[in-house]
């Protein structure tokens, strides 16, 4: 240790509280760094963490990545100050300016996507639980007023045909995502949003409803860009996409769309281990007109994610109540409803999938297996291939936890069959978990285990 360097007792204390070894911390750190394309940090090891605890200041975005890794483990927000570290410029790199101009924020989003090296150097690349703070209630009113003031500005006219074109392309991109995963064509979605659609948002509108419709359509496209990034494990990009989508929805004064986006943010937070923040966002997605103005199908989607967040937060009774409410809402959906295109994927199979995840998280493995089976049975696999593969993966994991390893291997083999041509971090995670589950059994001579492990290893090597 260099002379005069003081041990970082704050960092040591939080690592101890998390119950992690220095090797565990390094692994968690690398996972966060790789999610954000920061491959320069892939060699971080136990010795690096030991040096940090000893008083060495990590460079670049490392403090932000470390905060996120510890936040996920501890279930609460950890800031650089909490672990005695600094970030470039003395900033935590996680502040969110909800009041910034929406169109300027869209430009920043484009730069965020393109200039990866710069945003990593500034420490702003990591998905951050601290950046999940929701805007105030008065913010929504201010944003709707700001949107109304845009009518009539711009040098070219935007009409209903332009809105319809954007919606048609959002629909096409959404269907491609459902079939091929978020890693397929996402760069095309982002480019279209930040070029052609951004130009339309700067146009003039003869009528307020057209302007609101265009901002809503742009919000759906930004949401899709965020969702595709989430599916592909690019969590910082997803978080940035969801934020700009929420600003566009607010300017459009479109509460159901805002609820849809908040639901996605809740889903991501829960998946990353931030249960309390996920529950905040899920509850916000169902607040007031975000829920009451939504169609029954979308209400069911909001409700089942709320149930998952409740389960992740340990409230089994409330989660069960929320599941029943979501089931009733979906039962009230009918073919004659004027539904937004964004909910085309949500039906019995999706409800069963999310219900199974909720039951699994409350410890009801038998119930989870039943619902995962229902999801597999009722889903149109050729149309919703990515989710079908993930569902099979989750079903296999539940079967393995119940001790039915050969049955799990058969299910996982079906999942691998379905993954052909899919580009998704969620499918990769499913396969990695397969290998982890069967690793203790590799030396026991079980042919189903050996065959599955070989297939899973080959799949991961090819990705």
Structure description:
With 463 residues, the chain is mainly alpha-helical. It folds into four domains: 9-90, no CATH class; 102-122 and 144-253, no CATH class; 255-379, Serine Threonine Protein Phosphatase 5, Tetratricopeptide repeat (Alpha Horseshoe); 391-463, no CATH class. It has helices at 9-18, 22-35, 46-53, 62-74, 102-114, 116-121, 137-148, 160-180, 186-201, 208-231, 235-251, 255-271, 275-285, 289-292, 296-312, 316-331, 348-361, 365-378, 385-401, 405-418, 425-438, 447-462.
Secondary structural class:
mainly alpha
- The mean pLDDT is 91
Overall number of strands: 0
Number of domains: 4
Give the terminus-to-terminus CA distance: 41 Å
Strand content: under 5%
**Low-pLDDT residue intervals, each spanning 5 or more residues:** 118-124
Number of helices: 22
Question: Residue share in helices?
Answer: 55-70%
Taking all Cα atoms into account, the compactness measure Rg is 23 Å
Order of helices and strands: HHHHHHHHHHHHHHHHHHHHHH
The best one-word shape is globular
**Could you give a short account of the major beta sheet?**
none
């Amino acid at each position: 240790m260099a002379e005069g360097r003081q041990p970082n007792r704050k960092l040591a204390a939080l690592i101890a509280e998390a119950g992690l070894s220095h090797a565990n911390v390094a692994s968690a750190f690398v996972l966060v760094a790789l999610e954000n394309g920061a491959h320069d940090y892939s060699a971080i090891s136990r010795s690096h963490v030991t040096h940090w605890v000893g008083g060495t200041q990590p460079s670049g975005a490392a403090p932000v990545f470390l905060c996120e890794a510890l936040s996920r483990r501890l279930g609460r927000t950890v800031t650089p100050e909490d672990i005695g570290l600094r970030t470039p410029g003395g900033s935590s790199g996680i502040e969110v300016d909800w009041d910034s101009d929406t169109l300027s924020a869209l430009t920043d989003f484009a730069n965020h996507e393109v200039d990866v090296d710069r945003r990593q150097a500034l420490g702003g690349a990591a998905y951050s639980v601290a950046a999940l703070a929701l805007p105030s209630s008065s913010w929504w009113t201010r944003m709707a007023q700001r949107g109304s003031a845009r009518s009539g500005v711009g040098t070219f006219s935007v009409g209903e045909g332009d809105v319809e074109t954007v919606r048609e392309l959002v629909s096409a991109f959404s269907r491609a995502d459902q079939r091929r995963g978020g890693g397929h064509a996402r760069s095309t979605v982002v480019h279209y949003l930040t070029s052609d659609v951004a130009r339309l948002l700067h146009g003039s509108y003869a009528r307020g409803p057209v302007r609101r419709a265009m901002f809503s359509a742009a919000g759906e496209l930004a949401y899709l860009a965020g969702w595709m990034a989430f599916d592909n494990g690019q969590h910082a990009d997803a978080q940035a996409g969801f934020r700009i989508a929420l600003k566009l929805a607010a300017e459009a004064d479109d509460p159901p769309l805002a609820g849809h986006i908040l639901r996605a943010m809740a889903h991501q937070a829960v998946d990353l281990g931030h249960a309390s923040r996920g529950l905040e966002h899920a509850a916000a997605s169902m607040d007031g007109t975000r829920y009451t103005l939504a169609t029954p199908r979308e209400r069911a989607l909001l409700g089942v994610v709320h149930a998952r967040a409740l389960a992740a937060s340990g409230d089994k009774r409330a989660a069960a109540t929320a599941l029943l409410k979501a089931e009733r809402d979906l039962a009230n959906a009918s073919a004659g409803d004027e539904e937004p295109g964004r909910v085309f994927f949500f039906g019995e199979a999706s409800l069963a999938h999310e219900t199974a995840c909720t039951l699994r998280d409350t410890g009801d493995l038998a119930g989870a297996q039943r619902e995962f089976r229902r999801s597999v049975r009722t889903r149109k696999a050729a149309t919703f291939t990515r989710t079908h593969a993930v569902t099979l993966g989750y079903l296999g994991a539940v079967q393995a936890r119940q001790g039915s390893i050969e049955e799990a291997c058969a299910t996982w083999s079906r999942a691998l069959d379905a993954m052909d041509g899919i580009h998704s971090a969620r499918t990769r995670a499913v396969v990695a978990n397969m290998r982890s589950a069967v690793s203790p059994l590799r030396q026991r001579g079980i042919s189903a285990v050996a065959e599955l492990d070989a297939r899973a290893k080959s799949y991961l090597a090819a990705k």
